[in-house]
Amino acid sequence: MTQKHKGANGVAALLAPRNVAIVGASDRAGSWSITVNNSLKRTGFKGPIYPVNPRSETVWGGEACYKDLASLPEAPDHVVVLVPGRAVIDTIRAAGKAGARSATIFSSGFGEGGDEEGRKLGAELAAAIEEAQMAVSGPNCLGNLAAPSNFMTLTDRRIGALKRGPVAIFGQSGGIVTAIYRSLTNRGIQPGFALTVGNEAGLNAADYIEYFTQDPDTSVIACFIEAIREPERFRAACIAARRAGKPVVAMKIGGSEASRTAALAHTGSLAGSLQCFDAVAEAIGVIRVDTIDDMTEVVEALTHGKRPNGARIGAITFSGGLKGLLLEAAERNHVSFPPLQDATIERLREVLGIGTSMGNPLDAGFAALSSKEAYFKCIEIMQDDSNIDQIVVQEELPTADGVNDKAANLRVVNDMAGAPNAKPIAVVSMASYMYTDYSRTFREGFMRLPVLHEVDKALKALRRVGEWNVSTVRAQNAPARAAISAPLEAAGLLARAALSSEGVRTLGEADSKALLAAYGVKAPMETFASDAGAAMAAAKAIGFPVVMKLVSPDVQHKTEVGGVLVGVADEAGVRAGFEKIRASLAVKEPNAAFEGVLVAQQIGRGVELVIGVQRDPEVGPVVMFGSGGVLLEVAKDVAFGAVPMTSDEALRLIERTGAARLLAGYRGAPACDIEAVAMAISAVSRLAADFAEDIESVDVNPLVAIPGERGALALDALVVLRDKTAK
Question: How far apart are CA 691 and CA 252, in angstroms?
Fold first, then answer.
């Protein structure tokens, strides 16, 4: 978008105003106007603050109060809106006419509860913001904090002096944003920004990410997202942040139906599936976390440590018990402690004085220390092991001066971590613990070493950071995607979609397969037959046995109406099967149209897979792959990925599923053509990308790969088109 009130320019106007006008100023005890005024003064805002209320001549102990924005001594720059309901809309229009560049709307009632009247008011507010050409945060928020300009309207009385820092926080929940802020500052991590953005009627996540990507102080962007307003801009902003080396760490609602309902009640938007968000997150450089604790550990690792070249971890502990805890946590969290190299084990044995007759206590990426004399030497040796991407050491911050030797140890390890070619090192504690003032002050003395709490949270954080860096490097080194035009026949095939009796526009099986074939996905030999004679002729041409399948524009799931027959062995079986399918449809779906059957080549046993496309209301189409046939519902062995997807990316998607083991040749069976399966996934993803505005879903189930044979065949397919008239 090109409007000056959007993007980085809009956020800059919001966070560095020349003056602030507070509309709805009041002397009422506990009013937000008093809190906002005190926040601005307490944190050192340099510009004038103008209270506005037509019913008061003075407020706040005798300060002059203005009847409206037009009466101010100068044009308002930033307007804090504390009035209710429709008065908010009037205030935004007046602010635009008065020349204001930005506003923060604290007021609620603009569709958060999903009520129709609130939605209408929200739409009217959005139109007023657009008309005023102002950068607006909110409504339904708690204000903002920007340390570089000493600007704080955030209504958190616990925050004193503002400090610049490497972390920027924004989120649609003011309570969550302030909790993240406190969690980070308690750990000695200083956020320079904390923005509560509410319903995002004006500025949204894409705008804030664009701004923080350009901000020289910010190295990590932390956010809480309930709903994504502009998916394409959001994706582009996250990709730009990744190119700039700035991870976006996101807590995202959408993992359960309950949370999605809560998001509707809170922000007035439908939250998308968390699986779909995750599918896109890796492709655009977003690290998704589940909890505030997880976010704290990830941000700690990103702000203080080097970026690792992978997620393989080596550990140095003083406790055999901690080794056990780490190994179990690693299994729970899909973290790899790879075996140490033989040369590493030999050097560690020598340093630790462990003889070969004592067995191998150094397996699984661990060096367990019974004393600390060899501590630093062991770190050096582990640094040289090419199986390891990052190292964790057992330590905690000292709570007071002179308690133990931890302070001296940590200073040395910090210097080792800062060496030019050193692999990332992180400190890990057995459990979470409180910081003292001494801990926080001590922490400021060494900034090259992440200090992570508790094994589960620590390992999850290190895995996420390692995977983020690997995917970022891969994206930076990837060749530009070739621009491939959609097949010429594709649009024409989509135009043949028929409206079913249920009001859904679907492409029949034959046309769906023809569309897939245009993208290179093959199907078995098959012929449409409108009568029994044509069906017998088709079966003879294909060769027995054959499969017979119902063709009806009103039936999406043929097996549910008795519309699929397999193993039809002769002409008599074809004639009887034709009548059986027609009769079954008449009984089970009497209003459905019967057009005929598809007579298809019967494929022998193979690995049944599924490829699908699902349109998410927030992130758009995503591709799904996994075990198909009956296993789709039973095992739910599926993984999701972004579209479009290259064959190499499709291979990585396959590896995330149990189907990968079947394709590789399970229990002595010959391997399947996994490259052909990857090409089919890539082809379906291209179809979804080429017609992203037209396709609602694609279902290829099953796609069969036959052990020991080349290729993969789509045995069934269904393409459903979007209802663009639906709201």
Answer: 27
| Of the listed ranges 263-272, 299-308, 539-548, the one predicted with least confidence | 263-272
- The DSSP code for 558 is G
Same domain, 670 and 695: yes
**Tens of pLDDT, residues 388-445:** 999 999 988 888 887 666 788 888 899 999 998 999 999 999 999 999 999 998 888 8
Q: What is the pLDDT of residues 316-360, one digit of tens each?
A: 888 888 888 999 999 999 998 999 999 999 998 888 877 654 444
Range of the domain at 573: 528-602
Nearest by Cα to 516 from 691, 638, 648, 675 = 691
Give a yes or no: residue 449 inside a domain.
yes
State the greatest distance between any 2 C-alpha atoms of the chain, in Å, as a whole number.
100
565 and 654 share one domain? no
- State residue 612 phi and psi, 5-degree precision: -140, 165
- Going by the DSSP 8-state scheme, the letter that residue 696 receives in this structure is E
Report d(CA 639, CA 278) in Å as an integer.
10
Q: Is the pLDDT of residue 266 over 70?
A: no
Torsion over CA: 560, 566, 570, 571 (sign)? positive
> How far, in Å, are 275, 595, 642 from residue 237 at the CA level?
20, 49, 16
- pTM, two decimal places: 0.89
Cα(299)–Cα(305) distance, rounded to whole angstroms?
10
Shared domain check, 196 and 49: yes
Q: Kindly give the residue spans of alpha helices, DSSP state H, lying in 353-454.
A: 375-383, 406-417, 437-443
Question: Is 289 found in the same domain as 184?
Answer: yes
Answer for the pair 244, 285: CB distance below 8 angstroms, yes or no: no
Q: Which residues pair with 526 in a beta bridge?
A: 600
Is the confidence at residue 257, as pLDDT, over 70?
Answer: no
Domain boundary among 269, 301, 333: 301
Lowest-pLDDT range of 208-212, 394-398, 458-462, 570-574? 394-398
Structural domains counted in the chain: 4
CA 585 from centre of chain: 43
Q: Are 427 and 452 in contact (CB under 8 A)?
A: yes
Residue 532 sits in a domain whose CATH number is: 3.30.1490.20
